[in-house]
Amino acid sequence: MAHPSETGAEPFPDDRAEVPPPRTRVWRDGTLEKHDFPVAQVSDYLEEDGTVVWVDLCAPQRADLRVISDELGLDPVAVEDAVSRHERAKIDRYEGYAFLNVYVPRIEDGELALDEVSAFLAERALVTVRQGPGFDIEALVKRWDESPGVDIASTGAGYLLYHLLDLVVDRQLDAVQALDDEADDVESMIFDESSPMRDIQRRSFRLRKNLVALRRVALPMREVVNTLLRRDLRMVAPDLVPYLQDVYDHTLRVGEWTDSLRDLVANLLDTRIALQGNRMNEVMKKVTSWAAIIAVPTAVTGFYGQNVPYPGFSSHAGFIVSSIVIVVCSVALYAVFKFRDWL
C-alpha cells in the first residue's frame, strides 16, 4: 500500500525565503479586532475575557513552533507530530487542548495530491500548521468571515475548527467527484474499440491508486469528527453539535463513495479482461474460418498434384473444372461462415 507521501503534496521548498510569515487573528466578543500581530502576543490576548485567537504557521521548523508552544503550553510530543510529515489522520487529546491531523486532497493533471494540515484546538485558541502552501488558507478565512449562523463568542475556537473540518471534507467530496468522472471516462474507453489498450490500463491503474490513497485519509475523518461529537469529552460547544453532525454525515458519504468506486474500478478491470477474451475469440474464429477457406484450394490442387488421370487430365477443360471447384467451394464456405457470424 502506498504511503501518503507517494501521492501527497510536493515537499515544501527548502528555501525558507519562500515560506509565508505566520498569520494571526483575534476576535473579541465575536468581532474581529486585530490581525497579523506577533505570535508572542497570543497569551496576552488569551488572558483577556471574550477573546478567541487563531495562529497559522506554514511549513514551520521546530524553532518556529517553540514560540507558540510556550504561549499555549503545548506538549513536545504534539509539537513533534505537527512538524513531522505524513502523520496519519487522527485526533489526540491532551490536558487543556486537542491535536488533530488531516489531509486535504486535490486533483492535479489526473494525480491525487494530499496537503497535510495539523491543528491545536484549545477553548479559545486554534493553531493551524500547514506542511506546505498547497492548502488554500484564504478559502478558510473567507468561510469564517462570510458564514453566519453561529456566534463565535459563545462557541469559541470550536467555531473555527468546524469550518476547517467542513472545508477539508468538502475538498474530499470534490476529489471523489473528480475520480468518479474519471471512472466514467475509463468506462467509455473500455467499450470503445478504437481506444488504445495501454491508455486504458494506465488510467485504470492511476484511478485505482488515487482511490486507495483518498480512502486511506478519508476514513479516519469519521473518528476525528465522532470524537469531537462525544458529549462526555466536551471538546466543542453544544451549539456546534448539529453543524459537526452534518460534517460527520459528509465523511460517511466520502467513505461510501470511495468504496463504491473501488468496486466499480475492479468491475471495469474484469470487464476489460472479459472483452479482451471475447475479442480474442472473435479473431480466432476469423482466422480459423479463413484457414478453412484456404484449405479447399490447397486440398484440390494437392490432390490433383499427384499427377493421376482425372476427367480433363492434360487438357484445358480439366483446368477450368478444377478452378470452378475451388471457387464454388470457397464461396460456399464463406457464405456459411458469414451466416453464422464467424467472419
UniProtKB/TrEMBL annotation:
Region annotated Disordered, chain positions: 1-23
Q: Which SUPFAM superfamilies match?
A: CorA soluble domain-like, Magnesium transport protein CorA, transmembrane region
Q: Where in the cell is it found?
A: Cell membrane
Q: Do you know which Gene3D superfamilies this protein is assigned to?
A: CorA soluble domain-like, Magnesium transport protein CorA, transmembrane region
Asked if the keyword Membrane belongs to this entry, the reply reads: yes
- List UniProt keywords, sorted A-Z: Cell membrane, Membrane, Transmembrane, Transmembrane helix, Transport
Membrane topology (UniProt):
Multi-pass membrane protein
Principal subcellular localization? membrane
Per the record, its GO cellular-component terms are:
plasma membrane
Name the record gives this protein? Magnesium transporter
Enumerate the CDD domains for this protein: TmCorA-like
Please report which protein family the annotation says this sequence is part of: Belongs to the CorA metal ion transporter (MIT) (TC 1.A.35) family.
Specify the species: Actinomadura physcomitrii
Question: What is an example of a GO molecular function annotated in this UniProt entry?
Answer: cobalt ion transmembrane transporter activity
Q: Where are the transmembrane segments?
A: 287-305, 317-337
